[in-house]
Specification:
alpha/beta, two-stranded antiparallel sheet
Length: about 190
């Protein structure tokens, strides 16, 4: 059972999409991620690019983020996200979109920037690195912004001008915390 850990919606149970298409971040990993970024959430703009149930974006809102964009290509998943957002009373602070990550990034290029981006795409694909490239090329991560990457890769996720701030393993899941350290982000 997934729930919001702390903040205004603390303890609220969240629905998950049916089937195997979505792989929710388990409680232990989510707690570890939020202990890594706990002092960087207040007042921030958040993007959860492969949102699934919306739990990561909703957790940031519960902890004081300004707003969150929750994107998933699966309509059933975004329907669940909307119900979870309404249940937690955080719906007015989020924008839930049913679209492909490529189309979303192309659409916000030069128009919107985020302070925190969560990337938890399907394992066993190159989508994570493609998404990182597109995010950097589009310039949608703020300077000093962070990208939280969840993957099944044992080696840390690194990309271009993004600095690896932290890498941790939780069972078969690995979290790489990347920080946009500035102008070198597009120098690949």
């Amino acid at each position: 059972m997934m729930r919001i850990i702390t903040g205004t919606a603390r303890g609220m149970k969240l629905e998950t999409p049916a089937g195997d298409a979505t792989r929710p971040t388990d409680e232990r990993v989510k707690e570890a991620v939020f202990s890594m970024i706990q002092f960087e959430i207040e007042g921030r703009r958040v993007l959860d690019l492969f949102a699934g149930s919306g739990q990561l974006g909703l957790e940031t809102l519960s902890r004081g983020a300004q707003n969150a964009v929750l994107v998933d290509a699966d309509k059933a998943a975004t329907d669940v996200i909307k119900r979870n957002a309404q249940k937690t009373k955080l719906y007015d602070k989020c924008n839930v979109l049913t679209t492909d990550y490529k189309l979303f990034i192309r659409g916000v290029k030069n128009a919107q920037k985020f302070d925190i981006i969560f990337l938890d795409p399907p394992y066993g694909s190159d989508i994570l690195f493609d998404a990182l490239k597109r995010i950097c090329d589009a310039g949608i991560i703020e300077e000093n912004g962070i990208i939280v990457c969840e993957s099944d890769r044992e080696t840390p996720v690194v990309y271009g001008g993004l600095e690896l701030a932290r890498h941790a393993r939780y069972g078969k899941k690995h979290i790489s915390l990347l920080r946009n350290v500035g102008d070198s982000i597009n120098e690949i």
